Each structure stands twice: as C-alpha cells, then as structure tokens.
Amino acid sequence: MRTRPVVLTIAGSDSGGGAGLQADLKTFTALGVFGTTVITGLTAQNTKIVTKVLEVPLDFIEAQFNAVCEDLKPTHAKTGMLASGKVIDLVLRKIKEYNLNLVLDPVMVAKSGSLLVTEDISEHIRKAMKESLISTPNRYEAEIIANTKIDTQDDVRNVARDLYSKYGNIVVKGFNGVDYAVVDGEEIELRGEYVNTKNTHGSGDVFSAAITAYLALGYKLKDAVIKAKEFVSLTIRYGLELGKGHGPVDPFAPIEAIVEREEGRNELEKLLWYLESNPDITLRLINDTTKANVAYMTNYQDVLSLAGGFIKYLNKIKIDGPILNNINNEISSIMKKINGKIGVLLPVSDKILSSAERGKIKLTKSGIDGDALLNYNMVLITAKSRDELIKKLKEVATS
C-alpha cells in the first residue's frame, strides 16, 4: 500500500497561479508530499496587480479544516494569506485542535507591492508567530512586525535576532538572495545564488511550502530550512517569463532538471552500447593515443559525460569511468558552445575532414551555424538526438 506524508496549506488563491495555494501545491507535489488546502481568501490578480481580495466566511474555513483533518490527518501545515484578525484567530484555534505543526508565512504584501490584507493584522501575526515552529517574513513584512525600517543586510540580521527573542524561530528574507535565520538559538546565514530577475512571484510561498514538506518528510528544522533555501533558489534561477509583470518562479524546475539528467544518462549509455557493439564504425573514428568522449546537455545546461572517455584498445574500445554530471573536462566545456543536445568528441582525422568537404557535417570554430566544433586537434560532432548522431557517425566512418 502506497502512501505519502500529508501536509496542509492554509492560504489564499492566486488566480494567476504563481503564488498562494497554487504555488504551495506545486511545491508539495514536486517534493513528494500530498498537499491539502484550507482556502482562506480569493484574489483577483495577475503578474502585475491584485485587483480584488475576497475573504472566505469563517464558518466555511472551519468546515474545510474539519473535512481535511478528520479524514486525511495532515501532520504539518503552513499559512499564506490570512486577511484578517478573525481569520488568524480561527486558524490558531484549529491548529491547536488538530495538533498541527505550523510554518507561518505572514503574507501581507505581494511582489507587486499590493496589500493582501483587509486590515492591520500585525498584532495577530505576532501572536501566531509564538504558536509556530518557524516564521518566514520577507523584509517588508518583518518591518511591519518589528515596527522598524530594514535598509541593509545588517538590519536584516538584527531584526531576525530581535524577532527570535520575542517570537521564536525565524527566517527574515533579505537582500540579493541572502536571508538570515535563527533556529533554536543558532544563527544561520542562508545564501542562494543571486539571480538578476524580476520573475520571483511566489518565491516566498515556495520557500515556506518547501520547509513544510521537508519537515513532513522527517528533516530536522534547521536542515529543512537549508534545503528549502536551496530548492527555492533553483526555482528563482529558472523562473518563468510569463505575463507582463513579475513572472512566477518554477517549482517543477529542480525536479525536471533531475529527470532530464537521468534521461541524458540513459541516452549516453545507449550511445556507448552502440559504439561498443559496432567496432567497424567506432574504430574508424578513434585512435589508440587520444581519448574520445561523449556528452549530453540538458535544457538546464547540465552536461553529462564520461569521467575518463574512451579509446581504441586492440580491436575494440575501452571505456574509462562512469557517466558524471558537470565535471571539469574538455567535452563539458565545449558542449555549451554549440547548438546540440548530444555529442561525441573525436580526434580530427582525414575521414572527418573528408565528411566536412562533402557536406556530411558542417565544421565551425565558433559553435555558430555548424554541428561539428573544432577545438585544437579534436572535433565535437553534435546532433539533436542519439539516432541523428549515430547516422552522422556512420556517414563519417564510411566516407
């Protein structure tokens, strides 16, 4: 019998799909937990603006809690938009009733700068922070909670320390991808890759949802925070150019990148099997002094290749090393210069030059407008698919 950890998002709906409970559910699915929802509000919004906010009636919020928790029994929950003090008070009561471990994302301001609350809820948020495992305000929300201005990264650190002393575990999201956490008294600087992009809509939701998911999967709080930072950094790096405002981050990107690497590994294994099984082709393309290699580049610019390459040995080929990702070798560095998905690096030979003269391959030194990149005494022949590459290698070998 298959099952998954069940988690709950208590949040508002983003009609644009980039933030709110939509971002939470995408993150939960990507990280392998089963997401459930208590919808606290509806927004009419897109990547540019929030035009309207509608609170869900309190009795319906409570009905959702009861329906989900009495049957599916989530262990961990996170909040998003809680638009009023009455909503927050209800949520805290239901959290205690069902003994849920809470990650509090005190959502008050959208990336567009639009307010997502219908009243001043700062005092209710402070109360909720004391009831939570951890809180994850961005710096604008931290300013409201702490009632102080945050202008520098030092301010982020000082506010995080102050909020921890008053309300418990905290992550304050700071400047240029650097956040500051205090978890069980330990201060942690969380550094993600800084990406100069406007497409960060939903990043705060994804971060708190990832913490919730990792906790449900059994990680300790500190480790969950660190892994969530790594996850959200990747979703920002591969954010989507959708809409005319702040485009959404992509919670599927980190998982899709892994899938594509595995697809690449499978493609290279099949290519190597072909090269080993067809020495009449392969031995015409390599020699016994220069190592050749194979590579596969994903849509995420990851390059898989053999650790050592392959070489002619008597009347067969000898393969050296496993297939690894993004290692520092010749084929990995030049694969990104040419428009191809899969390639083989071979020593320059008369057969290759003859194939170029006959138009079977197109040599290039820049990687532009060609499928065979010259690099000193080597040439990287590339193609869009394994079958296309094998066809090219047959044509070169028999030229």
UniProtKB/TrEMBL annotation:
<keyword id="KW-0418">Kinase</keyword>
<dbReference type="GO" id="GO:0009228">
    <property type="term" value="P:thiamine biosynthetic process"/>
</dbReference>
<dbReference type="GO" id="GO:0008902">
    <property type="term" value="F:hydroxymethylpyrimidine kinase activity"/>
</dbReference>
<dbReference type="InterPro" id="IPR004399">
    <property type="entry name" value="HMP/HMP-P_kinase_dom"/>
</dbReference>
<dbReference type="Pfam" id="PF08543">
    <property type="entry name" value="Phos_pyr_kin"/>
</dbReference>
<dbReference type="GO" id="GO:0008972">
    <property type="term" value="F:phosphomethylpyrimidine kinase activity"/>
</dbReference>
<protein>
    <submittedName>
        <fullName>Bifunctional hydroxymethylpyrimidine kinase/phosphomethylpyrimidine kinase</fullName>
        <ecNumber>2.7.1.49</ecNumber>
        <ecNumber>2.7.4.7</ecNumber>
    </submittedName>
</protein>
<feature type="domain" description="Pyridoxamine kinase/Phosphomethylpyrimidine kinase">
    <location>
        <begin position="14"/>
        <end position="250"/>
    </location>
</feature>
<dbReference type="InterPro" id="IPR029056">
    <property type="entry name" value="Ribokinase-like"/>
</dbReference>
<dbReference type="GO" id="GO:0005829">
    <property type="term" value="C:cytosol"/>
</dbReference>
<keyword id="KW-0067">ATP-binding</keyword>
<keyword id="KW-0547">Nucleotide-binding</keyword>
<dbReference type="InterPro" id="IPR013749">
    <property type="entry name" value="PM/HMP-P_kinase-1"/>
</dbReference>
<dbReference type="GO" id="GO:0005524">
    <property type="term" value="F:ATP binding"/>
</dbReference>
<dbReference type="InterPro" id="IPR036409">
    <property type="entry name" value="Aldolase_II/adducin_N_sf"/>
</dbReference>
<keyword id="KW-0808">Transferase</keyword>
